[in-house]
Amino acid sequence: MNDDVIQLGGKKRNTFMDKVKEILPEGGNLNLCLTCGACSSGCPATGLDGMDPRKFLRMAALGLDQEIAKSDWPWMCTMCQRCIYVCPMSIDIPQLVYNARGLRPREERPKGILGSCDMALRNESTSAMGTAPDDFVFVVEDVLEEYQEAQPEFADMQAPIDKEGAEFFLNQNSREPVTEPDELVPLWKILHLAGADWTYGSAGWAGENYCMFLADNDAWEKVTRTTVNQANKLGVKTFLNTE
Amino acid sequence: MSICLTVKELEARWEKALAATRAAVTQHPRTYRDLKAQAAEIIENPIDINDYFPRVEKLVDQLKAMDPCGHGSIFDIFSARISPSSIWHIKMLRMECRDLLSHLNAFNEWRRRQHHLRMVK
């Protein structure tokens, strides 16, 4: 005989139903979703993993929290926000997707995003490719020197790092300095010709933030704060986000 | 599909769907009961993969029988939703059936409000 006690739980705690209700506008009726489907029609992730935003929202409304947690679809959503744009009730489905990502234990989240976030936490660069501040400074100076010599019309062009009191603080996706350094230059040229007073930071220069996509709030904040602190330390007036 | 719908338009559609659903239920009470039983069975019991198409076919036939001319009732909307070509994934059948019953519950509540009926337990 099996002596295990069968425990009957109380009322099922429904995280997602509560979340759905929170993001419904006053008087919003979830049954109205049935006749619209505008979110699914414009979603680039519709049909992937057998899911679309309408189904995702309906699953949340029906309290299918476990199924939502198991589904890979929230990781396929690009959070482009087209669904909010077309929804007559302005339901914030990407916010639900973000919460759904947070349901998984951190170590079970997709390895690519997880690894990129962890890499960004390794040093002050906040680079998802793990590039150290010294390497970034070296690449910028090296490429700048090369272009100043090769193109005399840009001999005066600058690519400052940690310039105090500059007008603009510019960030930069890590891919360019690491794999395609020449791609850094076009923006430098535009800023040079526009006469902009700008600077990179040796800390927080990397613009990508995979910790946001990982739904890791603390790490997301840490990466963003590193950049903001560097910009504030330099007394820069405007932050130019290139991502 | 129009993406310029307003909440007011959606509410009007929902009201129209409820009225069309009431007409269908009044006309086909037996099919309505069978349909609900069929959806509940799909939710509660495992289905062999070989039974998937016959089950869905039966369900879609019942939905179409409820609203054969496509008057925009809940049955009409779900007959398109549940058809294998739009369900994306077999695993979604159970969710769609649950959603169908959830909408029929909303319909029943609306109908009770219309008639000022009270549920006596």
Draw up the topology in text:
The complex is a heterodimer of chains A (243) and B (121).
Chain A lengths: L14 H8 L15 H4 L11 H9 L3 H6 L11 H5 L6 H10 L8 H10 L12 H18 L17 E3 L4 H5 L5 H9 L4 E2 L10 H4 L3 H18 L3 E3 L3
Parallel strand pairs in A: 1-2, 1-3
Chain B lengths: L6 H21 L1 H16 L7 H15 L7 H9 L9 H24 L6
Report on this structure.
- The complex is a heterodimer of chains A (243) and B (121).
- Chain A has 243 residues and is mainly alpha-helical.
- Chain A folds into two domains: 90 residues, no CATH class; 129 residues, no CATH class.
- Chain A has twelve helices and three strands, in the order H-H-H-H-H-H-H-H-E-H-H-E-H-H-E.
- A three-stranded parallel sheet of chain A has the order 2-1-3, with no helix packed on it.
- Chain B has 121 residues and is mainly alpha-helical.
- Chain B has a domain of 82 residues.
- Chain B contains five helices and no strands.
- In chain B, helix 2 crosses helix 5 and helix 3 runs antiparallel to helix 4.
- Chain B is globular, with a radius of gyration of 15 Å.
- At the A-B interface, helix 3 of A face helix 1 and helix 5 of B.
Count up the domains of chain A: 2
Report the helical percentage of chain B: over 70%
Number of strands of chain A: 3
Low-confidence stretches of chain A: none
3D shape of chain B? globular
The largest sheet of chain B, given as strand count, sense and whether it forms a barrel, is:
none
For this structure, the quaternary state is heterodimer
SSE succession of chain B: HHHHH
Strands side by side in the biggest sheet of chain A:
2-1-3
How much of the residues of chain B is beta strand, in percent? under 5%
Identify the most extensive interface between protein chains: A-B, 27 and 26 residues
Instruction: Calculate the terminal CA-CA distance of chain A, rounded to whole Å.
Output: 62 Å
Please identify the structural class of chain B as seen in this structure.
mainly alpha
Distance between the termini of chain B: 44 Å
What value does the average pLDDT of chain A take? 90
Rounded to an integer, what's the Rg of chain A over CA atoms?
Answer: 23 Å
